């Protein structure tokens, strides 16, 4: 779950980090009201969970509440990288002296927490890694040891602060807060970019990003609730898929893909691409899918406006071919048939039974996945 | 013998009375696996498919000499199940369970490693070794009937079955197939699994099945280039068409912070002389060429 900036900032604040005063608004009137309350120039920040909002026009400075109102009328409803702006975070404008980068992730290779720190900030870490890789410091923290004094010291020194100054202490407490948020909230990412030194000399997270592990959401009911009320970057199809129990990712082609297992489904997409086609989606029915899951999954693609051909690639083990065929039959019955072409390749458990069931529906079963993929691509072109 | 399991591997199934645990215990027994005990707290004293059930792993180990464990416990309790197995003294733990919070996996896996225990998974199909008729996992039995000299290490389940099937059809036999798991943090990662199987004198060739996310494939390529592995290898990487920032079914299959895309993995393999199959179906052909058959 990707937290909005205002939610992430609230977390930082909860952990004792000083943040610029601000509130989130859902209407231009509210934006004006908050701007009046804060007083002076304010920043309007579109709350969409993508990087690079600024360049896309999602961050604006307003000198007066009236200007804030005007800007907000344009910003609400704006489409930024596929996401519609429904919330605007209005915060006090602060003059910035210096920008840094600080993030915390889980390092897969060492199985430790990893801080990435750079005295240059405001741009993506990819950008820094490309242009000035020597500026990135990596500090690993073993989860069984936890964050220690010396970890914090090496990060804060690297960011350019002098020991035992007020700024040093502020920066240290931000490092500590980020670590605590990471652990307490089961986060995959805690980032402050830019982390800034203001004209007044305060160290503050000017922007904040937190991504919480979806598998741990049950431990944080308040976040679960927030996600339900505001699904952020999850499409309607993806929400539906999650409810039924399969994985769905939207892509932009016209060949609908259904597979079982993440790896095989990705390989099926790649196969379609290999033969010159374009996958419309990734849809993994998972292991041991029942006919109901197959039915609901297929219905999604039958109704999908962009999908011309549906290519199912099932390698049965726990998943049974007859169960899959029954799901196909039920989906077609509920939809009253379809004009879309369906290409099925199925191997494994109860294959023969599945073949007979599909034959009755006039759907031929392919033994060879390459042949089936070629056929699907050919039909999509026709 | 294989590197991870052999004739003396005695298995305890944690979560044996659940739907999955019970179903796959039967399949493991049918395959020939020595499943000696099961564990479900509160169900001690019962049996599942003739296998005695205990309340603790410690008891299963004490009474039956179990030295390996397969975990089918629900996600909320699975990390604890790993810790329990480690403390009970087993040497190998296979975690089938999906959706374990990654911070919990992190702690459990680190604890196990500090005690010298090998963890496969979580979110994995497990491992199967046809030469010793032993399976700790959920792979379909019928594909793993032909023992031989090819090791398959993979981040995916069904794709492992698919490629194993293609290998067997092409006349190869399997020494061991290990699905290391689709989560971002796993006990034994793809690179370590390849390194382990390479140490087996019975293994002639290694098939590596990678996917988007992380850098295990790149690390493996580096190990190969440095000579840590000196056996013929063939790779396949799933997810060439996966868009950045989206999880492709597996929690670990995500292109993030500018790294982990299929292209860089494929390039890393090719740069060190490991051929990469364009499709899963090309793997046997490439392996035959590697082994000069």
From TrEMBL, chain B:
InterPro entries noted in UniProt: Cit_synth/succinyl-CoA_lig_AS, Citrt_syn/SCS-alpha_CS, CoA-bd, CoA_lig_alpha, NAD(P)-bd_dom_sf, SUCC_ACL_C, Succinyl-CoA_synth-like
Residue positions binding CoA: 17-20, 43, 96-98
Keywords: Ligase, Nucleotide-binding, Tricarboxylic acid cycle
Reactions accelerated catalytically: GTP + succinate + CoA = succinyl-CoA + GDP + phosphate; succinate + ATP + CoA = succinyl-CoA + ADP + phosphate
Binding site for substrate: 161
Superkingdom per UniProt: Archaea
Name of the top EC class for this enzyme: ligase
UniProt xrefs under Pfam families: CoA_binding, Ligase_CoA
The keyword Ligase is annotated on this UniProt entry: yes
Domain CoA-binding: start-end pairs: 4-100
Molecular functions (GO terms): nucleotide binding; succinate-CoA ligase (ADP-forming) activity; succinate-CoA ligase (GDP-forming) activity
Entry's EC annotation: 6.2.1.5
Residues annotated as the enzyme's active site: 250 (tele-phosphohistidine intermediate)
Family: Belongs to the succinate/malate CoA ligase alpha subunit family.
Its biological purpose: Succinyl-CoA synthetase functions in the citric acid cycle (TCA), coupling the hydrolysis of succinyl-CoA to the synthesis of either ATP or GTP and thus represents the only step of substrate-level phosphorylation in the TCA. The alpha subunit of the enzyme binds the substrates coenzyme A and phosphate, while succinate binding and nucleotide specificity is provided by the beta subunit.
Protein name from the UniProt record: Succinate--CoA ligase [ADP-forming] subunit alpha
Taxonomic lineage of the native organism: Archaea, Thermoproteota, Thermoprotei, Thermoproteales, Thermoproteaceae
């Amino acid at each position: 779950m990707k937290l909005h900036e205002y939610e992430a900032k609230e977390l930082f604040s909860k952990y004792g980090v000083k943040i610029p005063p601000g509130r989130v608004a859902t209407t231009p009137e509210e934006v004006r009201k908050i701007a009046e309350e804060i007083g002076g120039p304010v920043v309007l920040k579109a709350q969409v969970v993508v990087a690079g909002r600024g360049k896309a026009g999602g961050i604006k400075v307003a000198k007066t509440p009236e200007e804030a109102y005007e800007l907000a009328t344009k910003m609400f409803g704006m489409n930024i990288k596929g996401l519609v702006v429904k919330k605007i975070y209005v915060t006090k404008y602060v003059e910035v002296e210096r920008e840094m980068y600080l993030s915390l992730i889980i390092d897969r290779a060492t199985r430790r927490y990893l801080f990435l720190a750079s005295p240059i900030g405001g741009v993506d870490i990819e950008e820094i890694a490309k242009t000035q890789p020597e500026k990135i410091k990596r500090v690993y923290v073993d989860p069984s040891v936890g964050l220690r004094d010396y970890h914090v010291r090496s990060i804060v020194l690297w960011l350019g602060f002098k020991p035992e100054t007020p700024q040093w202490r502020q920066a240290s407490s931000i490092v500590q807060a980020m670590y605590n948020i990471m652990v307490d909230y089961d986060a995959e990412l805690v980032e402050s970019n830019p982390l800034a030194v203001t004209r007044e000399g305060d160290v503050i997270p000017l922007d904040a990003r937190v991504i919480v592990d979806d598998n741990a959401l049950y431990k944080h009911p308040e976040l679960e609730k927030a996600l339900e009320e505001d699904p952020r970057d999850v499409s309607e199809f993806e929400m539906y898929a999650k409810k039924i129990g399969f994985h769905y990712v939207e892509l932009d082609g016209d060949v609908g893909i259904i597979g079982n297992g993440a790896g095989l489904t990705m390989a099926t997409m790649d196969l379609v691409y290999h033969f010159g086609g374009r996958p419309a989606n990734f849809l993994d029915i998972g292991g041991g899918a029942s006919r109901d899951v197959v039915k609901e999954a297929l219905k999604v693609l039958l109704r999908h406006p962009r999908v011309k051909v549906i290519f199912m690639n099932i390698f049965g083990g726990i998943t049974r071919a007859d169960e899959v065929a029954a799901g196909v039959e039920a989906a077609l019955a509920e939809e009253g048939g379809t004009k879309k072409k369906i290409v099925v390749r199925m191997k494994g458990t109860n294959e023969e039974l599945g073949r007979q069931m599909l034959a009755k529906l006039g759907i031929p079963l392919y033994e060879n996945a390459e042949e089936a993929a070629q056929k699907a691509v050919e039909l999509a072109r026709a | 013998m294989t590197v991870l399991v052999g004739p003396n591997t005695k298995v305890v199934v944690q979560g044996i009375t659940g739907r999955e645990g019970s179903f796959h215990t039967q399949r493991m027994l049918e395959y020939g696996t020595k499943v000696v005990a099961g564990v479900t707290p509160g169900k001690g004293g019962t049996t599942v498919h003739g296998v005695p059930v205990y309340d603790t792993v410690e008891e299963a180990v004490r009474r039956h000499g179990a030295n390996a464990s397969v975990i089918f416990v629900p996600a909320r309790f699975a990390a604890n199940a790993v810790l329990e197995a480690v403390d009970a003294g087993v040497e190998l733990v296979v975690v089938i369970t999906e959706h374990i919070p990654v911070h919990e996996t992190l702690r459990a896996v680190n604890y196990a490693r500090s005690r010298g225990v090998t963890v496969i998974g979580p979110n994995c199909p497990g491992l199967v070794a046809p030469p010793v008729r032993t399976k700790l996992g959920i792979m379909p039995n019928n594909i793993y009937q032909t023992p031989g000299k090819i090791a398959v290490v993979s981040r995916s389940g069904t794709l492992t079955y698919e490629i194993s099937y293609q290998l067997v059809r092409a006349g190869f036999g399997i020494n061991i197939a290990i699905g290391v798991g689709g989560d971002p943090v796993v006990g034994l990662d793809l690179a370590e699994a390849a390194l382990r199987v390479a140490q087996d004198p019975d293994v002639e060739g290694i098939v590596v099945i990678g996917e988007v996310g992380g850098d295990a494939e790149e690390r493996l390529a580096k190990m190969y280039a440095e000579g840590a592995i000196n056996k013929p290898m063939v790779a396949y990487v799933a997810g060439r068409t996966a868009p950045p920032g989206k999880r492709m079914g597996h929690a670990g299959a995500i292109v993030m912070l500018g790294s982990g895309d299929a292209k860089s993995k494929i390039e890393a393999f090719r740069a060190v002389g490991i051929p990469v199959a364009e499709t899963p179906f090309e793997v046997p052909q490439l392996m035959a060429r590697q082994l000069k058959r």
